[in-house]
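Closing statement on the adenosine-5'-triphosphate sub-project.
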Amino acid sequence: MRTCLEVRDITKSFPGVIANDHVNFSVSDGEIHAILGENGAGKSTLMKIIYGLYKPDSGSIKLYDQELNFTSPRQAIQAGIGMVHQHFMLIPALTVAENIVLGGEPGNIRYRRRENIEMVRDLAKQYHMDIDPSAKVGDLTVGLQQRVEILKVFYRKAKLLILDEPTAMLTPQEVEELILVMERLRSQGIPIIFISHKLDEVKRISDRVTVMRAGKTVNTVETKSASAQDLANMMVGREVVLHVSKPPQEPGEPILKVEDVVVSADRSDKVKGVSFQVHRGEIFGLAGIDGNGQSELIEAITGLMPCKEGKIEFLGKDITHSTVRQRTKEGIAYIPQDRHLDGLVLDFELTENFVLRDFSAEPYSHLGQLNKKSIEEYSTRLSEAFDVRPRRIHALARNLSGGNQQKVILAREVSRNPELLIAAQPTRGLDVGAIQFIHNKLLELRAQGKGVLLVSLELDEIMALSDRIGVIHDGKLMAIVPGGEATREQLGLLMTGVDMEKEG
Amino acid sequence: MLWAALLRPDLWAATLAMATPIALPALGGTYSERSGVVNIAMEGIMLIGAFFGVLFAYYSNSAWVGLLGALIMGALISVLFAYVTVNLSADQVIVGMGINIFAAGLTAFLLNTIFGYGGTPRTTPALPNITLPGISNIPLVGPILGSQNVVVYLMLILVVASHYFLFHTNLGLRLRAVGENPQAADTAGLNVRKLRYLGVIIGGMLSSLGGVYLSLGLLNSFEVNMSGGRGYIALAAMIFGKWTPLGSLGAALLFGFAMALSMVLQGGGISSNIIQMLPYALTILALTGLVGKSTAPAADGIPYDPNK
Amino acid sequence: MQKTLKGLITPLLAIVIALLIGAGVMLITGDNPITAYGALFSGAFGSTANFSNTLASAIPLILSGLGVAIAFKSGLFNIGAEGQYWIGSMVAVWIGYSLKGLPSILHITIAIVLAMLAAGLWGGIIPGLAKAFVGAHEVITTMMMSYIAIFLSHYMLENGPMMQPGYTPQSPVILPSATIGLIVQRTQLSWGLLIALVACIIVYWMLYKTTLGYRLRSVGLNPRAAKYAGINVPLHLILALFISGMLAGLAGAVQMLGVQHRLYDSFSSGYGFTAIVVALLANNNPFGVILASIFFAALSSGGQSMQLVSGVPANLTDVISGIIIFLVASKDIVQMVQKRWRKDQTLASGKEV
Amino acid sequence: NTSAPKSTNSASAKKDFKVGLVTDVGGLNDHSFNFLANKGLEKAASDLGITKGVVESKQMTDYETNLTRFAQDKYNLVIAVGFLMQDAVEKVSKEYPNTKFMIIDSEVTDRPNVASAMFKTEQCGYLVGVMAGLMEKTPGIPNALGKNTVGVVGGMKIPPVDDYIAGFIQGAKSVNSDIKVNLNYTNKFDDPALGKQTALSQIANGADIVFPVAGGTGTGVIDAAKQKNVYAIGVDADQNYMAPETVMTSALKGMDTATYDIIKDTMDGKFKSGDVYFDLSNNGVGFATPIKAVPKDVVDKVNDVAQQIKDGKIKVSNKMPAGF
Ligand SMILES: Nc1ncnc2c1ncn2[C@@H]1O[C@H](COP(=O)(O)OP(=O)(O)OP(=O)(O)O)[C@@H](O)[C@H]1O
Ligand SMILES: Nc1ncnc2c1ncn2[C@@H]1O[C@H](COP(=O)(O)OP(=O)(O)OP(=O)(O)O)[C@@H](O)[C@H]1O
Ligand SMILES: [Mg+2]
Ligand SMILES: [Mg+2]
């Protein structure tokens, strides 16, 4: 088989980091080549170099024996390289169709609105993706946005595909669809570079795996020849435990009671009467396809959105109409799903982010004046306890990797010693090591007799951690099943709105 | 009195005439900000256009040459603006304020050194008023639209054309994309820098045209600071119009109407100072009552450096 | 220390380049740049009196610049400092001449506090409420309120309630008890300078050392995260515009009580827009605001002395300050020149060896 | 006062005689008093050989500084243009008793070293008002609209503006009691575009003579009259050159000659402190020769009224008539 892409000795450094350090690997025609590595290993940087977004400091890249010297993605696109970016490269204010054709619009001067919509509809159908081409991208759920990102690449009919974590936001069903498409493309001889933190996906579909660690390529192996455990060990450079061990535990009294809650946004009800309870010493998992009301539900519980109907009780007190500040004081901690949007002030120092929820409480402030010393002490303590890297408490949050940003939020919320932790997508985009760390923290809270409400799109995560699982669909709770008994199939069906008991 | 005033066609003609020097720079700002470059320099570029329009018109003895010269000067200063904001990632608001101060000083300085304190020569040709034969005879519409300065018609055409350009052409789509998310536009293969230059330069030329309207359209002379804050009002009109050409025109018309009305209503015993608050108060009322939130293009004001 | 020095290189170099361009213009128009710049410098700093007057003109810029900076820090663009300045001026003067028989300290304090309150409400109430509850863009509302304030001051003085009976439209002179005294006699430098400096320290302390400053800054940087942090975002938007307006109002009050002593019928003080430039050039740092204000004050007063001595129109200083702002903002141009210069130097020294 | 130079015979003495001029914030381009005062100063420099210095103030607070600068530099006479400088002149003249000051358009009394040049512009306003009133009554004037309406565009409601306007209205009404006067203030002195629109609106409302008292804004008013083929009346200086067919006459305020005269008097040691009034009787104010469109009998009548004012038979007030 012909070698399609050949990467030789690529080096790229950013101020303070060498993101790629003499990286070598190659991709052949008709191959799905996975790249594995911890957060910050340099995978995305490498892909961006191939795509012409970054200029390497040194090294060479060849596409079919032709040396590439891209200075912008325009040339990469012309050379037939397509890339799905880890952080969406979408324009929220434009429609799906506009996003997809942008840069390669058919016709000359006039933008052909209707034709483009039809064309995108056909394209989506061809790849079995259900999407409304005239919807505004900003109104779509992240899962749907991910589809747009993928369709953009298919529209350009690339000769080499780069998929940087395309499955992070997809439902299991969508992942299956994507895998089918990838296999189809492979059979057409189109090579694919595939980045994912999910070892089972990598095992299932890739032909070869290149593992990166700290900017270097550690090894390239045939996928068949390595087990998931081998791959994980290679990535981290030591032995890792892949499975969480959850000791059995009797739940205590209820700590959070949600009764017939209705939440509405943009003039329609997003949560349509949901009731459940979270007990002490319990992890309650909320499973569901993105956009079925889980964000609105937790924002109503945390006080970020008003509750239209129903009642929320916490520690026996009615908090339905309390402010965020009151709820925080009562002992609700919250890890929001979008760390950049809600969880952090990126241009604040770590110190300021560590006290984001408690800055007005003693000892971090006294009579309205911030207490610098105690904030610094607290920050240092948290940085060490949660292994936040770098260990500089005066660094700006913006300059941390996603995994470390997540640790800052986790540290802040867990250390407040809350009675209830609401964790929304706490491990999204994190590597196995970081995921493991976070899972252990959640289990620690459970062991201490606190309540945990876990919201995740990852069924594996939900199933591994939850004592009970509530499945939400279209703003309604379909069922609550015991964690130990749930199966993927059962949950998957419930998530799509199929109620087996009624049907069966 | 108000009713009688509203029925006067000259009120509406004045509305259009007063709206023009606001609508043009507002339209200019729309181009620039749609491409992601915050433009607060409309006031200064208007002065540049107004002054150089007169300068070129006087020495060539042709108002059209003056117009052309003003557009070129507007484009030149915009290239400079684009260079430092797009290539060098300079703070767009600071540079814009710098241009405003620079332009006010430069035009006053040149006026005094070239023409002296007495002002620009009276023999400077002006841009013609045009009477549209078909329309000027229609009652009501005729007195309003039938005979206006050529720049007024040009403005109306440019607003409609800009609407078409921004929202119905491929290039317009690209320009907007760059202002919303330059990185996404870059990865889609667009040339972010070129598109931003395009937005800034068209914007500068339109602001300059607004200045030309003041100096060569309405008059045939230049006065120090004759833009009189219209560039800033245009900034408000652009925001009010939600960064769209039609919206900007609408806001400019509202403002022009209130200005014209405050002119007509004077003399009823109320202090002219109170009456002249009308345009500003009406703008606030309309904004809070009708329009509400208007959101800037997402990447407006954010320099794009692909290596960051 | 070294960092501070390094930070000063860019502006200094920008000033040099802009002055060179200005010199080029003067050579073209046949003026002598050395005389002109000599006059400019000595007009701004050349004597105790000149330096005092430069400092005096910097005071209103410092205060209104601080106001604009606070708004920027809270994510808001207060383009209406001019109007807030006028409101503060009106109230201060009114209290200054109408309240009789008060001890000086009390009189001054009342005038200043009420001026600040009024200007704060002017900026905070309508623009603030409209921003917080309708999302109305503060650029529009503060600008419009500014024009309204200016017309209001015309109204007050032209046959209005504040007009001094007599020929000219101006207010009565404030009473001696409301007058802020001079630091340097026979100049305009009043103890208002102290008020301005103290205001800088307070604003710095407020922004970086208090929970209020923390709230304002987080609302400015990320309103969603601020809401998540339990901060009442609409309230703090209003508060930011209120405080911003208070400072612009303080600028007016200090100017009236310290320098002008009565209100005149005039178009605009020009402080509003200069304040924006001051805040931006200072990168919204309260202490940077002091330097930037002195710089603009020096250019303005020096420019007039330049016109007097050399006949070069004072407008040229606007050209020069425009270029300086331009260059400071585009740091890279200055750095390019800097590198070029270094290279030339090393080349030159290399040749010598 | 003994410090004034006694003789101005030698050339060096003339050169040593230094006159400084401080403009108000309107600057030298104001088409009005700053411009005219400077014109007088320039004439003095070229005719009398004095040394001149000019500063344009940028802010209200610059007045005091700029006046002081001249005084410190030992200028013999310092001219302050505009009533806004009254406080500054009062203050600085006290600090520098050996320097002579002249203020235009404002009264500074009780200072031995300050002369206040006051112009009775209500008188020339009255005369052009009479002319306008008669024109409106006279049938057959080309381009007249026949609505017996005139328009006045004021820059701001301040004395130097309202004096003219008060006189104008009284004059017009004195010969034509039914005449309608549309009065607008632009509240700006430097916005000719606004001036033009204001005048256009007045013309659309029937005005066929417009009278701007608005500095640079007024150039737009004249432009509007020219475009609509009606008449305008110039202000301060003879503005006929702006539109020879349109500007039928101008109300003149001799600030240039006043400035020149006071400089000359001061040089000759004849500086007189206190109010110096400029009115019809000393040709300090007046009106420019009307164009041909103004009938001879109208001009005769205006000249007649002028004589009556000089003789004190007609008293012109600078108070606005009721209703305005
Ligand atoms: N634009 C940038 N500026 C500075 N540092 C950067 C930049 N982009 C990436 N880095 C740094 O380079 C390193 C590699 O980042 P990269 O995004 O390539 O990691 P990754 O392997 O894709 O991680 P993840 O699995 O989290 O996506 C990290 O330390 C990151 O902080
Ligand atoms: N999020 C907020 N929104 C509005 N005002 C607030 C907010 N947080 C605190 N305040 C008010 O600001 C003042 C000073 O804040 P400080 O940090 O001292 O509050 P605190 O002592 O924590 O208040 P409390 O005792 O109510 O918790 C307090 O009076 C408080 O009411
Ligand atoms: Mg990555
Ligand atoms: Mg407390």
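The interface with chain C takes residues 84-85, 88-91, 93-95, 97-106, 108-109, 112-113, 232-233, 235-236, 239-240, 271, 273-274, 276-277, 279-281, 283-284, 287-288, 291-294 of chain B (CB under 8 Å). With this model delivered, the sub-project is considered complete and its resources will be redirected to Aim 3.
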